[in-house]
């Protein structure tokens, strides 16, 4: 059976705009606002559907690169966090080596990478200045392209002040992760 997701979303948006919106009580500004937000979210999702797999891989690769770069610091901060980080790196590397992984597997492995990275960042706040500074610098430096991707992903919301400085999603999703 053909994938009709685009048509389903288009029909849902049309239904909300043409049937539900006129039926919403104009005296209820919260209901009107929420309906606009739902319609807007569905419209954005519709424009991003073809990029979901690329975004998931990008996110996985971002966290994998960040985890690798923080491995030495994790050893210095907490053996338990370092162990979790190394296990997550290994799981991510195995997943990336298997082309048949599912979107659910990508999400699970990405969460497994993000968790010890977050724990490391929290624990780093109580370490000595030099180590904390190294960790903070790596996280900020390695996250620049991540932030740019997020800005590009949400570009259709219209809040971006400098849209011309952002690469297209297709370009972003075909570049290896790492420092900008």
Structural features, described:
The chain has 180 residues and is mostly helical. The chain has two domains: 5-50; 51-172, no CATH class. The chain is 75% helix and 0% strand. It has seven helices and no strands. Helix 1 (5-23) packs antiparallel against helix 2 (29-48). The longest helix is centred in the middle third of the chain and has 26 residues, at 52-77. The mean pLDDT is 91.
Compute the number of strand runs. Answer: 0
End-to-end Cα distance, whole Å, is: 42 Å
Strand content: under 5%
Summed up, the domain count is 2
In N-to-C order, the SSE pattern is HHHHHHH
What is the averaged pLDDT score? 91
Structural class: mainly alpha
Estimated helix fraction: over 70%
- Which sheet architecture does the biggest sheet show? none
Number of helices: 7
Uncertain parts: none
The assembly state of the depicted protein chains is: single chain
**Overall 3D form:** elongated
Gyration radius (Cα, Å) is: 20 Å
């Amino acid at each position: 059976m053909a994938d009709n997701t685009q048509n389903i979303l288009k029909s849902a948006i049309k239904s909300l705009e043409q049937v539900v919106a006129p039926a919403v009580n104009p005296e209820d500004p919260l209901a009107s606002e929420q309906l606009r937000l739902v319609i807007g979210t569905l419209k954005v999702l519709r424009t991003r559907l073809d990029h979901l797999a690329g975004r998931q891989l990008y996110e996985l690769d971002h966290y994998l690169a960040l985890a690798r770069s923080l491995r030495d610091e994790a050893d210095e901060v907490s053996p338990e966090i370092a162990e979790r980080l190394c296990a997550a790196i290994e799981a991510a590397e195995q997943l990336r080596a298997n082309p048949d992984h599912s979107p659910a597997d990508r999400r699970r492995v990405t969460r497994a990478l993000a968790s010890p990275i977050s724990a490391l960042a929290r624990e780093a706040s109580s370490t000595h200045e030099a180590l904390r500074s190294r960790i903070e610098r790596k996280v900020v430096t390695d996250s620049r392209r991540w932030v740019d991707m997020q800005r590009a992903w949400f570009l259709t919301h219209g809040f971006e002040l400098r849209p011309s400085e952002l690469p297209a999603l297709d370009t972003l999703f075909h570049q290896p992760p790492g420092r900008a």
